[in-house]
Specification:
The protein is mainly alpha-helical. Helices cover 62% and strands 5% of the residues. The chain is built from 36 helices and ten strands. It has a six-stranded mixed sheet, with helices on both faces. The protein has a two-stranded antiparallel sheet with strand order 1-2.
C-alpha cells in the first residue's frame, strides 16, 4: 500500500527503533540505505527543463499525501497522491517520479511528525519501487509487435510491478516489526491492490490526456471522484466492526478475531491470553456526575487501554463498562505484567469533565485467562474463565488484576457470573446502516409470460415473477398512499404486444439510420465490443436478477457517438448477448433488451445529428455537453421502457415503479457520460492503446463496485440480524415489564378480596376513552399503564382504615387521600414509569378545582389524569360493594353526565357516551362478581343510605375508588 500501512506499523512513540527485532532493523536500515542511494543517483539525471511543472506536481502530490482516506484497518489509509505518481511516471519517467514522491513524503513528515526511520523507509521503499517499475517498462518495450500496443503493455506491466513491489516491501516491514502476516495487516488484499493499481492507471491516463489537450484533464476528476467513493468502502465496512462510543472494536469483531487467533495458536503451538476488564462503580459516577461524565470516562479509559496495548493486541468494548483485550502469543505471566501497567495507568489518570470543576478518579478490575499450547479450550470457555477472574477481582475489593485459577472462586461470585450480575450496566449502541451511494448501471428488464408465472408459482414466487424476499418485494405490497395493488395478473398478450412494438420501433430505426451510415471502423468496434463484454460480464445483480448494474453503458454511448449506427447496433447486440448468457431468459426478454438498448443508442446519434456536422469537429466543451445530453437520453429511454414492461408484468403504476427503482440512477448516468467522453477522447487521440489505458481504472471501478455492493449486502444482512435480535430482546423486555405491571396491579387489588382486577378494568376503560378522544397510540399506552398502577399508593394505607365499614374520621380521610401522593412518589423511583407520575398524582382532582391533592381545575389537570379519574369512577359504580349493588351502564352514564363540568371533564364524558353507544351493556364489567366467584363468599347487602358519587362526601369517597 505504498504510503499506507508502514507509518501506522511503527508510528507509536513507544515503538522506538531499539524495541523492534534485529531482523526488522536490518531490513529497514538496508532499505533506507539502498533507497537513499537510488534517490541521489536518479535526482542527478532529472531533466531541468520541466522544473516548474514538476514543482507544481510536487505541491499537488504533497497536498494529497497529507490528507488520508481511512483504509481497511485502523492502521491503514489510502492516498489519492498515487494518481499523481502515475502521471509523473508517464510524463517524466523514473527520476522526476522519485523526486515528486520524496517531496510529498517530506511534507507529510513535517505535517504528521512520524518517527524518522518510518518516513525514511517510506521514501526509500518508493525509490526502489519506482526504479524497479522503470526497469520493467524498458524490458517490456523491447518485445516485438505493434508499437502502440507494446507501449501500452509495457506501461501496464510497470504500473502493476509498482503496485505489487510496494505492497510487498511494506508488508514485509509490518510482518518483521509487528508480527502480522500480509493477510492480517490488510496490505496485500485484492481490494487494496486493485485500488492502488487503478489510481496509478488513472494517473497514467490523465498524463496521456494532458499531452493531447491539457484542458481535457478535467475529465479525470470525475473518474477520480468515483474512485474516491470506492476507496471509502473499507472504512464503511469497518464501521460495522467498531463501537461508536469509544472507537474500539466491538464484541462481534472480537468474537470473529478470537476464533481466527485460536486456530492460529493451535497450529503454531503458541499461547493466547484474553483479558476481561470492568470499570469499577460506573453507576456511582453516573449518579454523582451525570451520564455525560460517565461516557467521557469510558472514552478516556478506552484511550488508555488502546495506548497501552501492543500493536498485535486487539482491544474491544464488550458493552456497558466491560472491555476485552486479546493478546496473541502471550503467557499468563506476560499478560499480567502488561495488564498491571494498564491498571496503574487508569488508577493514576485524572479525568477532566467539563460539567465538573474537579477531575474524576476511576479504577478498573481485570481478569486474565490463558490458553496454553497444551490446552484445548474453546473461545467461549476462554472468555468465561476471564469473566470469572474479573468477578474475583471485584469480589476481593476491585482495582486489581486476577489470573484465572490463581485464586479460589467464591460461590456467590460464581452464581453472580452465571446469572449475569454486574455493578451497573451502561446502555450499548448499535451500528448504523451505512448510507449506500448509487452505482453506475445499465438496465435489463424482467419479462415473464403467464406460463412462466404459473411455473414459478409452485416454487415460492409471487405473481409478479420475483422471488419472495427479494429487495424489490415491496412492489407486491400495497401502494405507499394506501391504494391496494391489483389482485389480478396482467394479460401476457398485452405484454407481448408491448415487446413486439418495441422491437418494431427498433427495427424501423435500424433501417432508417443504416441508410446513411458510412464505412464501419472495425478495429474500434472490436475494442469497444471487448470493453462492453468485460463490463457487462462483471455486472452486479440487484432486485434479485430483475436488474443488473454495470458500467457497460459508457462504451455503448461512446461507441454510438464515435462509430455511428454500426456501433449502436453491434454494441447493443453484444451487451444483450452477454446478459442473456449470464442470466438466461426467454426470447421475449432477449428481444426486449436488444430493442431497448438499440432505441436508446440510436436516439443519441439522432441527438448529435441536430448539430449539423460530426461531433469530433466541434470544440471540446460542446463535445462534452452533447455526450452528457446523450447519457441523459439513454437514461430516460432505457429506464422508461423497462418501467413500462415491469408495470405490465406486475400491474403496478409506471410512475411508482420508475420512482422507486430507477430514479436514483440519474446522477450515475451523468458520470458515465463523462466516462464515455473520456473513451471517445482517448480513442481519437491515441487509438486502441489510449482506450486500453482508460479501461484500467474503469475495470478497477467495476471490480470495486461489485465488492461495494456485496459488502453492503453483507452489512445489511448483519444489521438485519442484529435488529432482529434487538427486536426479540425488546419484545422480551416489554413482555417482562407488562407482566410486572400486571403483577403489581393484582397485588394492589388482592388487598380487597371483594374487588379483584379493579386496576385492570380501570386501565381498559381509560385506554378506550383515550382512543375515542383520538390520542396517539403512545399516549393511549401511557394511560393504560397509569390505570394499572393508579392505586399503588394504597399499599401504604393501613387496612384498618382502608376497609373500615363505618364512616371515616377527618384524620382517616386525610390519610386515605395521601395515597395519590404516595403512589406518585413511588413511581418517581422507577425511570421507566416516570411519565405516569402526574397522571397518578392528579387522578382525584375535580374539574371544578375542589379535588385533591393540589386542587387543580379544568385544563390544569393533565388530560390523562382526567381520563383516569372518570375510568376509576366508572369501575367503582359498575362493581358491587358491601353497601350497594353495582349500577347498569345506563345508570352510570346518567350519573357521569350529571357531574360533567363539576367532577368530570365534559369532553371526556362525551367520549364515554360514544363508548356506551358503541358497546352497550358489554362495556362495563362487575369486578365484584369475579371476586365472589373466586372467594365463594356472598356479596353483602347494600346499605340503606343512597349511593353518592366518588368523592361527593368524605365518608364514602375511599370506598368508591
Amino acid at each position: 500500500m505504498g504510503n499506507r500501512g508502514q507509518e501506522p506499523a511503527l508510528e507509536d512513540e513507544a515503538h522506538t527503533m531499539h524495541k523492534i527485532s534485529l531482523l526488522a532493523k536490518i531490513y529497514i536500515l538496508g532499505t533506507i540505505v539502498l533507497g537513499g542511494t537510488l534517490t541521489a543517483w536518479y535526482a542527478r539525471q532529472m531533466d531541468p527543463t520541466s522544473g516548474w511543472l514538476i514543482a507544481v506536481t510536487c505541491g499537488l502530490a504533497a497536498l494529497l499525501q497529507i490528507f488520508k482516506i481511512e483504509g481497511a484497518t485502523a492502521r491503514t489509509s489510502y492516498n489519492l497522491s498515487w494518481i499523481v505518481y502515475g502521471a509523473s511516471f508517464v510524463l517524466w519517467g523514473v527520476p522526476a517520479t522519485i523526486v515528486v514522491i520524496t517531496v510529498a513524503h517530506l511534507v507529510e513528515w513535517l505535517w504528521h511528525r512520524y518517527l524518522w526511520y518510518i518516513q525514511s523507509f517510506n521514501i526509500a521503499s518508493f525509490a526502489i519501487t519506482v526504479a524497479f517499475a522503470g526497469a520493467i517498462f524498458e524490458q517490456v518495450k523491447t518485445l516485438p509487435g505493434p508499437t502502440q500496443l507494446v507501449d501500452a503493455l509495457a506501461l501496464l506491466s510497470a504500473l502493476a510491478a509498482f503496485t505489487v513491489v510496494n505492497h510487498l516491501m511494506v508488508g514485509l516491514a509490518v510482518q518483521l516489526a509487528r508480527g502480522q502476516s500480509l493477510s492480517e495487516s490488510g496490505i496485500f488484499t485484492m481490494t487494496t491492490l486493485a485500488i492502488d493499481f487503478g489510481m496509478l492507471s488513472l494517473g497514467a491516463s490523465s498524463a496521456f490526456i494532458w499531452m493531447v489537450n491539457p484542458y481535457a484533464v478535467v475529465l479525470v476528476l470525475f473518474v477520480a471522484y468515483l474512485l474516491y467513493r470506492v476507496i471509502r468502502l473499507p472504512a464503511l465496512q469497518r464501521q460495522t466492526e467498531l463501537d461508536p462510543k469509544t472507537g474500539l472494536f466491538n464484541a462481534r469483531y472480537l468474537d470473529s478475531y478470537l476464533a481466527r487467533e485460536l486456530e492460529r495458536a493451535r497450529s503454531l503451538s503458541r499461547p493466547l491470553s484474553i483479558v476481561m476488564a470492568d470499570l469499577d462503580l460506573l453507576r456511582e459516577i453516573n449518579n454523582s456526575y451525570g451520564h455525560l461524565a460517565g461516557d467521557e470516562v469510558l472514552k478516556k479509559v478506552a484511550q488508555i487501554l488502546q495506548a497501552s496495548a501492543r500493536d498485535v493486541d486487539v482491544v474491544a468494548r464488550f458493552g456497558g463498562e466491560e472491555f476485552a483485550i486479546l493478546m496473541p502469543g502471550t503467557t499468563a505471566d506476560q499478560a499480567f505484567i502488561q495488564v498491571e501497567a494498564m491498571r496503574k495507568a487508569i488508577e493514576a489518570a485524572e479525568f477532566t469533565i467539563s460539567t465538573h470543576p474537579a477531575p474524576i478518579k476511576a479504577t478498573m478490575s481485570f481478569g486474565i485467562a490463558t490458553r496454553n499450547p497444551t490446552d484445548e479450550l474453546s473461545a467461549e470457555e476462554l472468555i468465561h474463565q476471564a469473566d470469572l477472574a474479573v468477578y474475583q477481582a471485584k469480589h476481593f475489593g476491585r482495582n486489581r488484576t486476577i489470573v484465572f485459577g490463581e485464586e479460589p472462586l467464591p460461590t456467590h461470585t460464581l452464581l453472580g457470573v452465571m446469572g449475569g450480575v454486574s455493578e451497573g450496566t451502561e446502555s450499548t449502541e448499535t451500528a448504523s446502516e451505512p448510507e449506500p451511494w448509487p452505482h453506475s448501471s445499465f438496465l435489463h428488464s424482467p419479462l415473464f409470460t403467464r406460463q412462466e408465472q404459473q411455473e414459478r408459482a409452485g416454487q415460492g414466487w409471487h405473481r409478479t415473477g420475483r422471488p419472495e424476499g427479494s429487495p424489490s418485494a415491496e412492489m407486491d405490497s400495497e401502494e405507499a398512499d394506501g391504494e391496494k395493488a391489483p389482485s389480478f395478473t396482467p394479460s401476457a398478450r398485452l405484454l407481448n404486444v408491448f415487446v413486439a412494438g418495441t422491437a418494431a420501433v427498433a427495427g424501423l430505426l435500424i433501417i432508417f439510420f443504416l441508410r446513411e451510415a458510412g464505412a464501419p471502423d472495425w478495429v474500434g468496434l472490436l475494442v469497444f465490443g471487448l470493453l462492453a463484454v468485460l463490463l457487462e460480464g462483471m455486472a452486479t445483480d440487484i432486485y434479485a436478477k430483475d436488474t443488473s448494474v454495470s458500467t457497460s453503458v459508457a462504451p455503448l454511448i461512446a461507441g454510438s457517438l464515435a462509430f455511428g449506427p454500426y456501433g449502436a447496433i453491434l454494441l447493443s447486440l453484444v451487451i444483450t448477448a452477454v446478459a442473456y448468457i449470464k442470466h438466461g431468459a426467454r426470447w421475449s426478454r432477449l428481444i426486449f433488451n436488444f430493442s431497448n438498448h438499440t432505441i436508446a443508442s440510436l436516439l443519441t446519434i439522432w441527438l448529435v445529428s441536430l448539430l449539423g456536422r460530426p461531433l469530433a469537429t466541434w470544440p471540446l466543451p460542446i463535445q462534452l455537453g452533447m455526450t452528457l445530453l446523450a447519457s441523459c437520453l439513454v437514461y430516460i429511454s432505457t429506464t422508461g421502457l423497462v418501467a413500462v414492461a415491469v408495470s405490465l408484468n406486475t400491474g403496478h403504476p409506471v410512475k411508482r415503479i420508475w420512482m422507486e427503482r430507477f430514479r436514483w440512477l440519474g446522477p450515475n448516468y451523468l458520470v458515465l457520460g463523462l466516462v464515455a467522453y473520456a473513451l471517445i477522447f482517448s480513442y481519437a487521440t491515441a487509438g486502441p492503446s489510449g482506450t486500453l489505458i482508460i479501461l484500467v481504472p474503469l475495470l478497477m471501478l467495476q471490480i470495486s463496485q461489485r465488492q461495494y455492493i456485496e459488502t453492503t449486502k453483507a452489512m445489511i444482512a448483519r444489521l438485519r440480524e442484529i435488529n432482529s435480535q434487538l427486536r426479540k430482546q425488546t419484545e422480551q423486555v416489554l413482555t417482562l415489564n407488562e407482566d410486572l405491571l400486571l403483577a403489581l396491579a393484582r397485588s394492589i387489588d388482592l388487598r380487597d378480596p371483594y374487588v379483584l382486577e379493579h386496576s385492570m378494568h380501570v386501565a381498559r376503560y381509560a385506554a378506550l376513552i383515550a382512543e375515542t378522544l383520538g390520542l396517539p397510540p403512545e399516549r393511549v399506552e401511557l394511560v393504560r399503564k397509569a390505570g394499572l398502577v393508579h392505586d399503588i399508593g394504597k399499599l401504604a394505607i393501613p387496612e384498618a382504615i382502608l376497609f373500615k365499614p363505618d364512616r371515616l374520621t377527618p384524620e382517616e380521610y386525610r390519610i386515605v387521600k395521601d395515597h395519590v401522593t404516595i403512589g406518585a412518589d413511588l413511581l418517581k423511583e422507577f425511570q421507566a414509569l416516570h411519565q405516569l407520575v402526574p397522571f397518578v398524582r392528579h387522578h382525584h382532582e375535580r374539574y371544578d378545582g375542589t379535588g385533591y391533592p393540589d386542587r387543580l381545575a379544568g385544563e390544569e389537570i393533565p388530560l390523562e389524569a382526567r381520563i383516569l379519574g372518570l375510568a376509576d369512577a366508572v369501575e367503582a359504580m359498575a362493581s358491587d360493594r358491601p353497601y350497594r349493588r353495582g349500577m347498569s351502564v345506563e345508570e352510570i352514564l346518567a350519573e357521569v353526565e350529571r357531574h360533567q363540568g363539576t367532577q368530570f371533564d365534559p369532553q371526556v364524558v362525551q367520549a364515554f357516551r360514544k363508548l356506551v353507544e358503541t358497546h352497550g351493556p358489554d362495556l362495563v364489567v362487575n369486578s365484584a362478581n369475579t371476586a365472589y366467584a373466586r372467594t365463594g363468599e356472598p356479596i353483602r347487602q347494600p346499605w340503606d343510605e343512597p349511593y353518592l358519587m366518588d368523592m361527593m362526601t368524605p365518608s364514602l369517597s375511599h370506598r368508591e375508588r
